[in-house]
């Protein structure tokens, strides 16, 4: 009996191996075999490394990307340049002067003002969170260094960034308006390494930027413990970033040409990175994922709709690439937008924003994703930063493949965003998920048009 | 029935609470209640921070320690100074110049030579490990930057440090003798953060020190990937450490006085730390553990033997404190030596080096440690760096409480050695283990003398 069963199973396996083409299923092909996504992440992080927008490194990254995308066989590969204001990092040192002299690990936030070259020393005023800073009397802050703490925790959906990131997004502007000499925040991050998290902050027109830095979590907690001892804390900051004016940045665009004139699907990642890490998670991975998936779809047969890849420039420092794309292409009808910009960990949920008539498409996609461990969410898809402007311009349909963000804010905007953090198996699961979606949506002949905006 | 049982249990608990003194067992007291060890680690890391030997920070740490140890009620608290040569860090930047320009995270090794202020640029010559460097022809290295890789992995007993640390310990000397312009090594560490591991290296008398730095693991692997592409790699190093001559360092010594004239038990930790982190794991934790345990033993009743605490200075940079102690006290008979200098994670094994007549003592100690999850090892105890000189001078008996080193080399000599890495429960388990040992050994009236050295 046992012998018979085994023989039958073997015969079945053998027959399957002999008759079926290997991985006729493009999704399985992606999951088991893809090397393209890894190759792009490995290449960008090794051969280019950090590629801050507006710098020579970002320009080298564009040249590298064009060569890579052409070599991979994509169509209409091109660079589309634009100009953008550019801020660059200088020296950055933070040092408790008294009563507990020691250095603290700090990094300047994008758009931070500069201290004098010899630094700035002032007393620290502590705030538990952004609300406490907002509520503070200006007299408390005048000439002082505000220190804004918060309690950001790891979340799978990354929602803690929105909830606690305000200390970075708007804290410096508030502190500047209240007359603070400078501000330091607990990094908008979740790891306990001495690698502070940078990221843009913005000052309102007419507000003079003050020096604004982020402390690593161990340093923020050390400063908090010092403050808890009840003595005035004198902190010295030397941070000398500067604005170097308008510089050239650019998008890299490539396509898998469709067989019809149906509006294209635009899929985006961003090519620029912050200067501290090598931008593996943020966002070489996204570029690797969308490109690998588009190529697998192409290999499976020409899709009906063109798939347009937008490797956006200058996302980190103000979404200049996304805005440039939105402006340039606002009059060319698009079918749907997607974006990959949340690391390299596995996709766990799919969200849709589709017209009512496309209910079957959503169901088909959800079914195709289910074997990959991806469930269907209940909220409307929102897109991403770089496809935001074209979505807004055209009220586009959107599909979001939500990645697991549990460890994303351990790495985000830190020196630790390096290749070794990328898990090959999870990266391939992303490629497989994107392949599953693109196979359906790029071959969908129905209308994807949403009602015009109210 | 159920009511009766509960009543009985409650009555028993109540009776126990009313009649027994709380935690009559000092080991349980340590495990459940100790705050002293944490308080010392928290205080040193917050109020002093990094405390490199020979610097003002180490001097502040001595002052802090004397006040703390007196406040805790220890006897004969004192500083014993000595002079030692002192090396201090300068600028440190590593940058691939071509063909893949980007910065690499580097830190200078202790005793590293200096580059010119404008830096040094040379081609990188790759070696898989120390043996490959040793085997290299001098002509390969002349004027080049040696890059020594290795495959160090996490080990519970820390043995990988000895096995793979040679790239740091002796690699620079070998490279210097072969005519290399400089050397960079993969950090002797096991974590993937952009925080390279420093630590001393040594050049033989007559060998001119060359610039010697450690790359973080992500950076070492990035450089390795660049090299694998087959093109010559030009690396620029700017490292400007300098020797500032003989400086004052010192040991802090305190005692729990014994009731007899039996030779004292010396227990050690080290007060100095490397300059990059705040020295929580290495070795404020050790000082916290031994001190907390000694105080609990004291609270349980005056021990027969004096317990002498050696908070050694200048361990990291050449064991100057341990050598000073060994020289100063070589003629005062000691009973036994112990040391805590392997972080703050739990003790998992006990090793002995005791005279044959003390077999019962070893058995008693092993029994007392067993409930803490500590097993008896089969190798002879070796002591530690700071008690090494006095052990050598007197052929002392030793007990080693081996700590779990699985994550020790994630933190060792990096900026990441900060308070947040210390787990309170594991720290208390250490205090409990030390309490168990000291209760036995400090009250042991038999001879602890080993045979004189052969």
Automatic annotation (TrEMBL), chains A, B:
Localization of this protein: Endoplasmic reticulum; Golgi apparatus; Lysosome; Secreted
Domain Peptidase M28: 251-435
Signal peptide: 1-24
InterPro entries per the UniProt record, alphabetical: CPQ (IPR039866), Peptidase_M28 (IPR007484)
Keywords assigned: Carboxypeptidase, Endoplasmic reticulum, Glycoprotein, Golgi apparatus, Hydrolase, Lysosome, Metal-binding, Metalloprotease, Protease, Secreted, Signal, Zinc, Zymogen
Subunit structure: Homodimer. The monomeric form is inactive while the homodimer is active.
Protein name, entry field: Carboxypeptidase Q
Organism: Sphingorhabdus arenilitoris
